[in-house]
Design goal:
heterodimer; A: two-stranded antiparallel sheet; 72% helix; B: 260 residues
């Protein structure tokens, strides 16, 4: 399979890489002594390295093409992934579920507080991902300003606590509902747009919220942020820092379970069907009597609701928030979680969140190259598995004449 | 059974900028009849459908629907498409617009949307009422699929159906909304003769159950064999109306189709 043109192409790629990396890998300017140090040996490493990497890349690409052509010959439905086969069996599903559950409960006792803290962050992104998954994965509305609703939730708690001394559990529903309300307010003008236009407007909205928080000092204390936010309370018991971290971890576990449960139910409802139909053909949908605006607004505000809830948790977890936590990068990460994990797939989004949040942490061993490695992993993912880690296999309604019930 | 008008369109006019696509069109459909709207390409037939179903907002004129089960007369123009469907006008599309990633059953289930209620709370809590409703949706959808002869494809994805079956599925989906009047936009377009014959049988079956139908069609043989009454349009105007025999011998119609 390594034909001459392939080798030639890899050769040119390595030449191109040598050229690109020349200024950073070869030239080193010593600005004190005003001398230039030429490291010519690096050319060799870059050339050989990129040549072989490109060969490997090509090999996998080639294999993927072979596979996909084989897959398309198979009948539809058999090409499901291993995970879906596993989950289809109730015995495996229950064993796997309870094993995961025990692991999740035991986690804080098995690992350090530092690990628990990272895991809590990852779980927060799981919920954020699942929330955005309703908007992007199910209803097909590309929302690039999701972090705005997260900010609304966080600032709701911070401000209500700062000004009125309200506690975590009181503010939690308020934060969620306020974010949902913002979702509706934004949605009314914006959801008339479609696709790219919607993405741009939501992106703008996300930035507007951040800029308001940054500049309206008398309201939000501006860039200096709000500190000394209370951690969640448990019947007024004073907790040490370590206990509080573990406590928030368990709160997040419960939230993740509730969210999975709700998203799952929404997916299989009349509303979920309408979302999927709306994603496919808006005009046909309207002609079938689906209120386009209402259905989209519900998706948008439900997604915002979860972002608001997690915003409150975020404020309580870090005890300090400022507008810098709610930049576009956050929206981009949450969106990557949904896309990388597999749009519309609940397990996919969960795995996507864990990978995307935990990977940069555990790649710390690579120190300054960690973001490079992270980027390379993302690019490879998109090339080799564009459908996401776990591609969404939608459960379809089945009609079986024997039991006359939906065969879910 | 007394026949009474269920759809009354008066003076319908639609302008696109300076172009008058529909010009003071009058049309009415009676209960239980099959009416047809014909005309050369570009005569404004699909524009008429779009105006009546709320996709376009007509410049002038009235569209009144008479709901037999409530006895109400409802003005449809100005309503959104989903409201129009809710009031009892369902349509199919000239270029098939199915939800291709959904199964045949699910496509019809979407048609039941406007006749059912469950919302967020119902979805989350799965109350008894919601479960019953879901079951009814599936039952009813399957019933309709049986009626149009697609029951064997029930769990198939819509995109995998043969062309003729996709057209039938569009009709099934529209029927699922329990329309007062069914609007078919070129149901036989692109069908082979065998499929067309099957379609004629299907439309006759649906009509025999009292369903009023208004169809746009190019296939003259189909129109002449099916319709009780025919309306002919040319350049946005109605140029003739009457029974198939009257239309066949109408000199205006012959001129519009064959030229001078």
């Amino acid at each position: 399979m390594f034909t001459f043109p392939e080798i030639k192409r890899s050769f040119f790629i390595s030449l191109w890489f040598v050229f690109l990396t020349f200024p950073i890998m070869v030239v080193r300017v010593n600005s004190i002594e005003k001398t230039v140090h030429w490291r010519w040996e690096n050319i060799f490493y870059v050339a050989v390295g990129s040549f072989f990497l490109s060969m490997i890349f090509r090999y996998f690409l080639h294999r993927r093409e072979m596979q996909s052509s084989e897959d398309s010959e198979k009948e539809d439905g058999t090409g499901q992934s291993f995970i879906h086969d596993l989950l289809a069996n109730p015995v495996y599903r229950n064993t796997l579920g309870s094993a995961l559950m025990i692991f999740a409960i035991a986690f804080p006792f098995l690992f350090s507080t530092y690990q628990t803290n990272i895991m809590t962050t990852a779980l927060m992104y799981v919920v954020l991902g699942l929330g955005l998954n309703i908007v992007v994965g199910l209803a097909g509305l590309l929302d690039l300003g999701y972090v705005a609703f997260y900010a609304v939730g966080a600032y709701t708690y911070a401000l209500l606590h700062y000004n009125f001394g309200l506690g975590f559990w009181v503010v939690l529903p308020i934060g969620g509902l306020l974010a949902a309300l913002f979702g509706i307010l934004l949605g009314i003008p914006v959801l008339r747009l479609r696709g790219d236009y919607l993405a741009i407007v939501t992106l703008g909205f996300g930035e507007i919220i951040r800029l308001i928080l940054e500049n309206w000092g008398s309201f939000s204390q501006g860039p200096s942020g709000i500190s000394n936010i209370a951690r969640p309370a448990l019947f007024g018991i004073d907790m040490s820092l370590n206990t509080a971290i573990v406590y928030i971890y368990y709160i997040m576990i419960i939230f993740v379970i509730i969210t999975i449960f709700f998203v799952n139910r929404l997916q299989d409802s009349r509303l979920g069907r309408a979302w999927i139909a709306l994603r496919e053909d808006e005009i046909a949908c309207q002609s079938m009597g689906i209120d386009k605006m209402k259905t989209k607004l519900v998706a948008f505000s439900l997604g915002a609701f979860w972002a608001g809830i997690i915003g409150v948790v975020f404020a309580a977890k870090t005890t300090f928030i400022n507008p810098a936590s709610f930049t576009f990068l956050e929206s981009a990460i949450i969106l990557s979680i949904v896309v990388l994990g597999g749009m519309g797939s609940i397990i996919g989004v969960i795995i996507g969140a864990l990978v995307l949040i935990l990977l940069p942490e555990y790649l710390r061993a690579l120190s300054e190259y960690r973001m490079l490695a992270f980027g390379a992993i993302l690019v490879c993912m998109m090339v080799f598995r564009p459908q996401g880690i776990i591609a969404s296999v939608r459960r379809t309604y089945k009609y079986t004449p024997q039991n006359r019930e939906e065969g879910l | 059974m007394m026949n009474y008008p269920i759809l009354k369109v008066t003076n319908l006019t639609m302008d696109f900028g300076g172009i008058r696509a529909l010009n003071q069109l009058d049309l009415d459909v009676n209960s239980g009849e099959i009416a047809a709207l014909i005309g050369p390409n570009g005569a404004g037939k699909t524009t008429f459908f779009n105006c009546v179903t709320g996709i376009y907002r007509p410049t002038k004129g009235d569209v009144i629907l008479h709901q037999p089960h409530t006895g109400k007369k409802i003005r449809l123009n100005g309503l959104k498409p989903n409201k129009v469907t809710e009031k009892g006008l369902a349509r199919t599309f000239q270029n098939i617009r199915l939800f291709s990633q959904m199964t045949v059953l699910e496509n019809v289930m979407i048609g039941r949307h406007c006749r059912t209620k469950a919302f967020i709370v119902g979805a989350l809590l799965r109350t008894k009422a919601t479960l019953r409703e879901e079951k009814e949706i599936i039952e009813k959808s399957h019933e309709i699929l049986e009626k149009v002869g697609l029951a064997k494809y029930v769990n198939e994805f819509a995109k995998n159906l043969p062309y003729g079956a996709q057209r039938r599925l569009e009709i099934a989906r529209a029927l699922a909304t329990e329309p007062v009047l069914l609007l078919l936009d070129e149901p036989a377009a692109g069908m082979n003769p065998q499929e067309t014959i099957e379609l004629v049988t299907l439309i006759q079956e649906i009509a025999s159950e009292g369903q009023a139908i208004l169809l746009i069609e190019h296939d003259m043989k189909l129109v002449m064999s099916l319709s009780d009454r025919i309306f002919v349009m040319d350049y946005g105007k109605k140029i003739a109306q009457g029974s198939p025999e009257e239309i066949r011998s109408n000199p205006e119609v012959i001129k519009a189709y064959l030229g001078e």
